[in-house]
Amino acid sequence: MMSTNSNVWAFPEAICPHCASCSKPIGVYQCIGCGKIFCSQHTASHRQMLRGELHEIIHESEQWNAYWNDETRKRQKVLKTKQENVFEQIEDWERQAITKIKQASAEAREQSKRLFEHHINMIPKWTALDISALKRAMETDGFVETHLSRWKIQLKRLKGKVSAFVTDFIRLKVVEPFISKLVVDGEYTPYEITDTNDDLDPEILIPPVHLMVPIEGDFTPYNEGELKTGVHQFRYKSKCIFFGVASKKANISKDPWNTPSTYGWTGDDVVYLNANPVQGYDGYQSNLELGDTYLLTVDCDRRTIRLKNERTNDSHVLDVDPTKCPLPWQLNVRFLDHVQP
Questions:
Q1: CA gap 92, 73 in Å, rounded
Q2: Which has the higher per-residue pLDDT, 192 or 222?
Q3: pLDDT at 239 (0 to 100)
Q4: What does the alpha-carbon distance between residue 59 and residue 53 come to, in Å, rounded to a whole number?
Q5: CA distances (Å), 311 to each of 241, 263, 274, 289, 318, in order?
Q6: CB 25 within 8 A of CB 33
Q7: Of the candidates 329, 144, 321, which has an alpha carbon nearest to the alpha carbon of residue 234?
Q8: Rounded to the nearest 5°, which phi and psi values hold at 139?
Q9: In the chain, what percentage of residues exceed pLDDT 90?
């Protein structure tokens, strides 16, 4: 830019974001943790503050470790004593159970012995045949047909008894459980620490924040590249009128609102769901004002996008249907001065 004096050249004023500490328009460094912008001087003080917080965390962690090491020894001693007591109870139950089993076995063995002896001793008496009368009849020749018939019947009956001889006269059965089973009932407490992000603000979990500040006359929306996995955050401080995403395959250059797979927020309380405008969806109220700062969080893993107005602290979340807006995604963010006619 040349001044009215043709012999003097003047450079234009440098335009930078405001420093979060001194509010002067000389912000040149952005913290990827909190997303705030600082000037050179306050960048150093910001880092010093973070180092101080880390020192406190280290000190508190060391104190905790010292306490917990002592507490661990105490608790382990208590548990070992408890373990010994439980083992003694198990051994007592084992001795009592063995005594009962031996006693029941001895009684069953004695009863079986007596029963078998009875049947063994009955066999010769049951099946023996006295033929002395037959021999005398043969010697004296003193018999007739009726004697023979009677002796034949007697012999047949005896043979029938032998063929009907059985050995399954004894049976073993448990009439009732006389030993109560010992069962150990307890819980495996999950002592290990499991990290969960459900109760944490995504803005704390996701440190990288991209600051998007368009420069008049020379601006290309940040709609290049692809978002496929992980969580990404983008901070906008300008005349934003639409925040959202679309599938990478979608052509959003001609019609960013009505392009299928578009999800996002705009003014007049309108939410776009797969390029379908729905007013007041899920209680959304735009409250968009020029110059507001917005934080757009894109969570590819959970298939959600979040918009936060840092002036009003209002947040809104949209579930993105991956069947209508398949990954990878691209940003679809529009500014008032860069809307296609």
A1: 29
A2: 192
A3: 64
A4: 10
A5: 16, 23, 28, 9, 20
A6: no
A7: 329
A8: -70, -40
A9: 20
Three-state SS sequence of the chain: CECCCCCCECCCCCCCCCCCCCCCCCCCEECCCCCCEECHHHHHHHHHHHHHHHHHHHHHHHHHHHHHHHHHHHHHHHHHHHHHHHHHHHHHHHHHHHHHHHHHHHHHHHHHHHHHHHHHHHHHHHHCCCCHHHHHHHHHCCCCHHHHHHHHHHHHHHHHHHHCCCCCCCCCCCCCCCCCCCCCCCCCCCCCCCCCCCCCCHHHHCCCEEEECCECCECCCCCCCCECCCEEEEEEECCEEEEEEEECCCCCCCCCCCCCCCEEEECCCEEEECCEEEECHHHCCCCCCCCCEEEEEEECCCCEEEEEECCCCEEEEEECCCCCCCCCEEECCEEHHHCCC
Structure tokens at 309: 């107005």
**Predicted TM-score (pTM) of this structure:** 0.40
Q: What is the pLDDT of residues 5-22, one digit of tens each?
A: 556 666 665 677 889 899
Phi, psi at residue 50, to the nearest 5°?
Answer: -65, -40
What residues are paired with 279 via a beta bridge?
270
Structure tokens at 237: 């401080």
Spatial neighbors of 1 by CB under 8 A, at least 6 apart, are 10, 11, 12
Answer for the pair 243, 237: CB distance below 8 angstroms, yes or no. Answer: no
Contact yes or no for 240/335 (Cβ under 8 A): yes
pLDDT tens-digit profile of 96-120?
A: 989 988 988 898 899 889 888 888 8
